[in-house]
Amino acid sequence: MYHSIVLVKQVPDTANITGNVMQDDGTVNRSKLPAIFNPEDRVALEMALRIKDQFGGKITVMTMGPPRASDILRECLYMGADEGVLISDRKFAGADTLATSYVLSEAIRKEGSYDFIFAGRQAIDGDTAQVGPQTCEKLGIPQITYLEEIQKVEGKTLTAKRKIEGGYEVVRCTLPVLVTVIKDAVEPRPFSAKRVMAFKGAKSLMEIEKMAEGNSLLYVDQLRHEFEARQLFIRTLTMDDLKLDADRCGVHGSPTKVYKVESVVLAGGDREMIEPTKTGLGKLVDKLMEDHILG
Amino acid sequence: MSTTTRDVWVFIEQRNGKPADVSLELLCKGRKLAQAMGGAVKAVVMGDSVDALIAEAFRFGADEAIVIADRALAQYRTLPYGRILSDLVREHTPRIVLFGATIIGRDLAPRVASATRSGLTADCTDLQISNVNYLRKEYADLLLQIRPAFGGNIIATIITPDNPVQMATVREGVMEMHPADHPVAGPVTRIPYVADAVDELLAIVEQHHEENRVNLKAAPVIVAGGYGLGTRENFKLIYDLAHALGGEVAGSRAAVDAGFVGPDRQVGQTGVTVRPRLYIAVGISGAIQHRAGMQESNKIIAINTDADAPIFGVAHYGIVGDATEIIPRFIEVYRNKLK
Asked: Across the interface, which of B78, B134, B320 has its CB nearest the CB of A259?
């Protein structure tokens, strides 16, 4: 029996950026991009599911993000996660990886005991691969990044294969451990139709509040208890719930700042067009030889 | 803002006692950054047999070396390396710490940045020192950390204004690498390794390195093919041209995905960054992600049927036409010139 925590992120689909997403000033209009489940995080969840399939236990999925990020928590429930936790607060906005890892590590600490933390190697919007290791450092546990394959889980020991430059290594690690997984590690399973039916009504506190709009706070509480009783409540944690230090959250807690953003411009300008004829190519080769570009 | 030092530290990544190219590239860059600030560039060397590493660090411009040598550090492991480097950073407060954006660098840097609560920017493609006005405050000699973002569609400049230590990982191959003009064998500070129980939580059972890795970065001439070639058969022309010119074969991501060429030969954001003397792009449209990996090449020739392909934007010479006709003609012309 193992308790796994899986860290997931909802990201803008940067692989499908089209014309109207890029604005004239070179910035990205995030609202024009579809929000998707970060691909490597889905692989991380699959890893956790396989451990649960084999040894039993529990899977808690956590995401930090805006209220709409509960979409991917529902998707995790459809795949087989036991519960979702939405960590959301306006005061988290503008967080860099250091501030994000602070919030995540405190949320994990509040969960009590765990054996594994799984995360994708990196998210496709920032590609930094920093949040996993930074969260891990704050928890004071070992990490295995770029994990390719879990070879053996036995008692309190994990043996796993990870990618290294020009090859791989096999490591043996004492639990608890945080692992970040690469995209090809395992194929994430599809949603279970039965679970989709069971959990499509799962709601976070913000979503319940929205449902109850215009009604008394008492009604929100009542609704919340109903959802909890039906196991359809997505636990929701704010800065106050986690008793966080405001100076370490969001913009205030982020040492790195975006100073300038430019769209990628083509250098060019002094380009010379060459005729695809023997004469044209002959002149090109002459020039390259003169310039000692070709020998 | 009080700045304790003006030093630039470069983490020297090593495998079996040999320094990674990116670490030497960073020493070259670090030297320039340190000069701009009036500080020194220091190589941080960890490993078992470190003499060759120290010598190389000085050859590529380090002013000083900080060395921790022990058998326990022979191979990189997150915990001892991260723990030791974090302690050193806390103790000495360098102004800048640079790592290669390799698997090791991307494993280690966030750990150290978290422990020291420093700002860290991943995968930089350029670094500069500049005075900055940010939110109506003046900052002298900040590190501009320049990196592609949003899948390579934008270039962001990141700063770490209010933090004593600025950290960055830097992509391999984007900085120049050459020995220092006037290398010195500077002071070496040796720090004893003190074991800690946490170091033993993770052990390396075995390591496997693939031999004969393609070394695109060292190739003076690269001929790269794209999806535009259409078939694996046509892609053979890329091999023919590379062979004739004494160059290496590379491919765009689309060519790799189509199975025309192996992933170890992929140039671009998710592949290798190269800056050869000559880069010939054939049937490559030139998506941002590809251009990011080759636009620093000394001379670029683009061959494409589409005259509007973005690849022509970064090319020095453009040839519009069918590669299956142009390549054999190019080879023939070249061979005749050599005679």
From this structure: B134
Q: For residue range A37-55, what is the model confidence (pLDDT) as tens digits?
A: 999 999 999 999 999 999 9
Whether residues B197 and B226 share a domain: the answer is no
Provide the domain count of chain B. 2
- Asked which of A25-34, A102-111, B83-92, B150-159 is least confident by mean pLDDT, the reply is A25-34
Nearest to B130 by CA among B41, B39, B36: B36
In a domain, B3, yes or no: no
Q: Can you give the residue range of the structural domain that contains A244?
A: 2-248
Interchain pair A164, B103: CB under 8 A: yes
Residue among B171, B333, B335 with most chain A CBs within 10 A, to mutate: B333
Supply the pLDDT for residue B281. 97
Query: How many domains does one find in chain A?
Result: 1
Distance of residue B109 Cα from the nearest chain A Cα, in angstroms? 8
CB-CB under 8 Å, B154 with A262: yes
- CB within 8 Å: B317 and A274: yes
- Dihedral pair phi/psi, residue A267, rounded to 5°: -65, -85
CA A220 to chain centroid, in Å, comes to: 30
Predicted confidence at residue A271, as pLDDT, reads: 85
Mark out the alpha helices in B128-190 (DSSP H runs). Answer: none
Task: Quote the minimal CA–CA distance from B184 to chain A in Å.
Answer: 31
Provide the shortest C-alpha distance from residue B94 to chain A (in Å). Answer: 16
Whether residue A198 lies within 8 A of chain B, CB to CB, comes out as no
At A81 the pLDDT is 98
Alpha-carbon gap, residue B17 to B76, rounded angstroms: 11
Would the CB atoms of A145 and B106 count as touching at under 8 Å? yes
End-of-domain residue from the set B142, B175, B201: B201
Does A233 reside within a domain? Answer: yes
Answer yes or no: do A166 and B210 touch at CB < 8 A.
Answer: yes
Count CB-CB contacts under 10 A for residue B185.
11
Across the beta sheet with B188-190, the strand order is: B119-124, B166-170, B96-100, B8-12, B41-47, B64-69, B188-190
| A141-192 confidence digits (pLDDT tens) | 999 999 999 999 999 999 999 999 889 999 999 999 999 999 999 999 999 9
Contact between A127 and B122 using a beta-carbon 8 Å cutoff: yes
CA A227 to mean position of chain CA atoms: 26
The residue segments making up the domain with residue B305 are: 216-338
In a domain, B154, yes or no: yes
Interface of A with B in 85-144 (CB under 8 A): 96-98, 101, 124-134, 136-138, 140-144
C-alpha B24/C-alpha B8 separation (Å) is 14
Residue A261 touches partner B, C-beta closer than 8 Å: yes
Which residues of chain B fall short of a pLDDT of 50? 1-3
